[in-house]
Amino acid sequence: MKEYQLKRNQELLLRDGRKITVVDKLGIGGQGVVYKVRLESGEMRALKWYFETKLSDAEGFYRHLAQNIDAGSPSPTFIWPEELTEWHHGTFGYIMPLYPKGYEGFAKFITARVNFRSIDAMINAALNIVTAFMDLHNKGYNYQDLNDGNFSIHPQNGDVLICDNDNVGGHGFESGILGKSRYMAPEVVRREKKPDKLTDRFSLAVVLFILLFGDHPLEGKRTNVPALTGKYEKRFFGEKPLFIFDPKDDSNRPVEGLHRNAIAKWPYFPSYLQEAFIQSFSQESLLNGNDRLLETMWRHVLMRLKASLVKCPHCHEPVFAESREFICPACNEKIKPAGYIKFPKRANMDILVPIMGGARLFAYHMDESSEARENIAAHIMEKPGKFGLKNESQSKWTISAPDDSQVIKNPGDVAVIGDGFKLDFGHGITGEVTKI
Q1: Could you give the dihedral angle defined by the CA atoms of residues 160, 365, 352 and 198, in that order, rounded to the nearest 10 degrees?
Q2: Mean pLDDT along residues 98-114
Q3: Among 49, 54, 70, 87, which residue's beta carbon has the most beta carbons within 10 A?
Q4: Contacts of residue 169, Cβ cutoff 8 Å, sequence gap at least 6
Q5: In sequence order, what are the residues at sequence separation of 6 or more whose Cβ sits closer than 8 angstroms to the Cβ of residue 34?
Q6: Could you give the CA distance from residue 141 to residue 148 in angstroms, rounded to a whole number?
Q7: How many angstroms separate the CA atoms of 286 and 256, rounded?
Q8: What is the pLDDT of residue 142?
Q9: 83 three-class SS
Q10: Where does residue 208 rank: exposed (0-12), middle (13-18), buried (19+ CB within 10 A)?
């Protein structure tokens, strides 16, 4: 059966009575064709038009999309369906916003055809992906088909847009789509479970690992076979998956010359990020679905990463500072922060900022309710034998010394800090300066 396709200048009616006109074909995929269409107002949209034979329960899927459209997008990050067409030739489609200029598909970053402008932009992309899925799950949805084809990222600032949201559903909804090989949770690969929030969190960890380390977390020496057939995929990603940096089993380590990115980047990132991935891809997580990090936990890890990005005092290359002595991966010189600012734990995770010149604190550290969590709120300044914290927030701070003397620091002021100082940022959150 030949699938029905739309023609240029063809007119269709939307569910709400508006008329759209087909302008051009943008692309074709497994489920259908994407067209550029014009609304009566003159605005342009994308139209995803389904192949009739690809919808096993077309009427049920239509109702599902209508519910999602009426409920609204969980976050501006999602290119969410805006409105359905009326039925035509036994099928239908939905309109959604077109991608703005400047965004590049995630696959281009993986293959280094596009690079981030800065490490900061790469961390921003990871944070934006995590925040989007936290918003999605908080609204009661799960994604079901999370993979590298879902994201477009702005290389200059790390802004993210997420597409292919038609299979997103609430608890108990089954789209019939299990996911993309290499991104599906092992229990889905083994056909023991349908996609849900827990399986989304596995896929999210895979996406974050690929984004930061440039290779797949389960592809190493074991998976280096001539062809990843269905039999091998089931074994390596379902029945016997093994993290390439599993601390207890080194039989699936990255292969020299094949997994260059993972080999080069793993030592570059700090221990707490490594530990987050070790937990996410532990055997308990892979085989039983336990210990997967929640989105809030990923955000704490990534904000700690963002705050610890400084320049090596020896070679001036970007480096992630640990809270203890560490080795610069660029020049192999030892670096020892003067201490760290310690905040109350969140989600049972350490919230630490190393005391080194150039380290940053964000609104996230000082005001948990802030909408602008990633706005810079302070810089650590360094002079020989002395450290200060410049107030770049909109709040007054109260700085308490170990002798109980206090001083108020207004926006723009610099507070001298030392071991035992307590920092009250004015939103019910305090930090303590601690020596190593």
Answers
A1: -50
A2: 92
A3: 49
A4: 64, 68, 141, 142, 144, 175
A5: 25, 26, 27, 28, 46, 47, 48, 49
A6: 19
A7: 25
A8: 85
A9: strand
A10: buried
- What are the pLDDT digits (tens) for 233-257? 899 999 999 999 999 999 999 999 9
User: Residue 71 is encoded by which pair of tokens?
Assistant: 């409920």
| Residue 360, both tokens | 């940053």
The half-sphere exposure of 79 on its side-chain side, counting CA atoms within 13 A, is: 21
Q: How far apart are CA 2 and CA 95, in angstroms?
A: 23
| The pLDDT value given to residue 150 | 85
176: confidence class by pLDDT, cuts 50, 70, 90: very low
One-letter amino acid for residue 247 of the chain: P
Give the residue carrying structure tokens 């990603």. Answer: 237
Closest by CA to 364, choosing from 382, 349, 385, 386, is: 349
**Phi, psi angle pair for 398, to nearest 5°:** -115, 120
Tokens of 366: 């000082």
0.85 exceeded by the pTM? yes
What pLDDT was estimated at residue 4? 80
Q: Which amino acid is at 406?
A: Q
The whole-chain average pLDDT of the chain stands at 91
- State how far the Cα of 45 lies from the Cα of 95, in Å rounded to an integer: 6
DSSP run (H or E) holding 233 = helix 230-234
Enter the tokens of residue 317: 């290359």
- Crossing angle of helices 119-138/197-213, nearest 10°? 180
CA dihedral 135, 139, 143, 149 (to 10 degrees): -40
The phi and psi torsions of 176 (rounded to 5 degrees) equal 90, -5
- Is residue 369 very low, low, confident or very high in pLDDT (cuts 50, 70, 90)? confident
Q: In the block, which residue shows the tokens 């569910």?
A: 15
Q: Is 362:392 a contact under the CB 8 Å cutoff?
A: no
d(CA 12, CA 412): 58
Question: Helix, strand, coil: what percent of the chain each, to 5?
Answer: 25, 25, 45
Which residues, in sequence order, are CB contacts of 17 under 8 Å at separation 6+?
A: none
